[in-house]
Structures are given as C-alpha cells and as structure tokens.
Amino acid sequence: KLALGDVQGAHDDVVLATELEPRNPHAWTMKGVVERQRGETVAARVALRRAIDLDPRAAGDARAVLAQIG
Fold it and tell me: How far apart are CA 23 and CA 18, in angstroms?
C-alpha cells in the first residue's frame, strides 16, 4: 500500500501486524518506515529500535532507516 501512496492504509496494516506478531522484527521495521513517511519521526525511531532489539543480527534495514532519520 505504501508503494501505491496509501500511507494511511499502510499504517493500518503495520499497526495490525505489530499487534498480531509483536516479536516480528520485519513488522517493526515496516512500522518504522511507515511512521517516517507520515512524518512521525519519534514513532519511527521507537519502532526501528524495537526491530533492532528483537533481532540485532537481521536488523540491517532498520539500522539503515534509523540512520536516515538521524
């Protein structure tokens, strides 16, 4: 949905994904990406850090987005 410009729909999806699978680092990374698109940098940082905490070895994408946010 995000690729189609439906930021609100993407947000709804990632919120649901993190609720259904709270230990899924990919869901948290995607939530961070969507929050960044929404201009919610604090929420993006929180989500991305959660992804990194869940799986530090597989969190390259989360780290990359976090570095872009600053």
Answer: 8
12-67 per-position pLDDT tens digit: 999 999 999 999 999 999 999 999 999 999 999 999 999 999 999 878 999 999 99
Report the alpha-carbon distance of residue 23 to residue 36 in Å, rounded: 21
Residue 56: CB atoms within 10 A of its CB come to 11
| 61/32 Cα distance (integer angstroms) | 10
The residue type found at 49 is R
In order, the DSSP letters of 1-61 are: -GGGT-HHHHHHHHHHHHHH-TT-HHHHHHHHHHHHHTT-HHHHHHHHHHHHHH-GGG-HH
